[in-house]
Sequence to fold (122 residues):
Amino acid sequence: MNKVRRGRGRPKFDISDEERVARKKESARKSSEKLKLRNLTIDGDLLERFTRLKDIRSKKIQVDLTNRQFFKLLLINMEETYGGSTIILEAIIEGTLNRGFDPDDAAWAEEELAKLKGESNE
Fold:
């Protein structure tokens, strides 16, 4: 009589590695679409500043903040300071917040402002 080998976890599918990778990519794509996730990329000095400030805020409120939580706090603070997203966009257009913005930001801000005000031509 053959002894049945039972291991931990779910048994492996009898599929190739390529098929497994393709299924994983498709699953990630569907999940991303469902949750409407987008990646935000920062590097160098900006990443160091973000991490340092996140650590300081985490210690201050005695909670280990995730990047997402800290980013939300930054946005809330900015909206409260500048009075909402339309004022922030207008300030970018006018150049009053022109610290580190590249010239394309003004064009982007104008499009976003039009969307918020319902003036989009799309």
